[in-house]
Amino acid sequence: MLFNSIEFIVFLPIVFLLYWFVFRGRRWQNLLVVMASYIFYGWWDWRFLFLIAFTSFCSFASGLLLERYEGRRRWQMAFSAANIILNLTILGIFKYYNFFVENLDLLFSSLFHYHLDWVTMNIVLPVGISFYTFQALSYTIDVYQKKLPATHDVVEFFAYISFFPQLVAGPIERATNLLPQFQHQRSFDYAKAVDGCRQMLWGFVKKIVIADNCASIVNEYWNNTADLSGLSLFLLATLFTFQIYCDFSGYSDIAIGCARLFGFNLMRNFNFPYFSRSIPEFWRRWHISFTTWVRDYIYFPLGGSRCSKWKIIRNVYIVWGISGLWHGASWHFVVWGLYHATLLAIYNLFSINTKYQHVVAYQRYLPNLKETAQLLLTFVLTVGGFIIFRSETMSQAGDYFYSMMTHPFFGDNKLIRQWVIWGCVLLLVEWLQRDKQHALQFPNAKPFNYLPVRWFIYLALICITYVSYALNIADDSTFIYFQF
Asked: Which of 287, 327, 332, 407 is catalytic?
């Protein structure tokens, strides 16, 4: 079930009313969450429910076994390793099996003139498997490391793994944050619910109004770049940069806002990343739940930053090679990850990894010259990475870069108007709200402290979103990160 679908618009208020007025009490509400989440997830293909249920049961059992064998370290290591290997094997079969077989076939055919194509399988990738697998792994690892006790309530654990707002595209929640919220009684908080609705509205605006309109332009021109100038090619790449941000952060805003309707606090996943002053800062602001996950469970165990500079760089390449592969079973995703690893390594070599105390241009309307240069450089480097990300092969990415460098820079710059409409509007709104949790978190000052003003803004955004949805209803509006 898509957030931007009629089915979800019907589904959400029904679940909301049942949750607060019929299924009273924590245990009954948890049971409703599981049932609603399985309906939500099974809407695509009911067969995927067996897979998520199996993952949930094995991870739940691993927690009980870790508790039962408390003090017997070897047994605990064996149980935690078994569950981690099991989950990664399931993920590997569904997401990476054909990728590795195809590359082995290429190797065998070039060395031994023998083809392995007979061992490939027609495997359908379950929606969101990368997200809920990482969520299940975090539980086993956190219980093993004694960061939280094992839960004995199978319903609350199934609710934690399958919680429908963030099930298929995050945020990737830690067991230490989300699971305890299922273990305590929730009460309806009007202020929290209203703010959740605001955040959902902004998420819908970003997805339906900005991302989907950018997508129609990007899809039209990306494979037909022969008659585009160098400037138009760069603007096209930036439109995809806006598309993927609004698509993914829009999903996160809807998920976080939706969870607040039910009394849950999910972690922040995006913090206005295009206002970053360096690539390290960008990755502290983009897909925060994923970057902190790989930091805590991969980068730190490798030694993190507590070793020599060259080992730090080695760790960065390992982490970002894995991160690139996590995004998809294709070499261009791996190269995208290594591209960012190289940028991060350069920043590390020159010790440019400032953890800024405040947002850019703190308590000022505009950035100074140094900040402006930092913002522009970081954005251009990010756009370069997203050209690799958007391309289907490295050959296509290479051709795109070559065309951008060799085509006349000026010409029929037909994309300038589209960039002004979508890019400037997005950047202006988010710049003004860059110190807030989301763009519709209005300050308590004139004119926003007047209820009619706020409602005028809400109704205007709802109308714009509806019109945009109606105009693009025939297009594929699936969220980009569903494929990961």
From this structure: 327
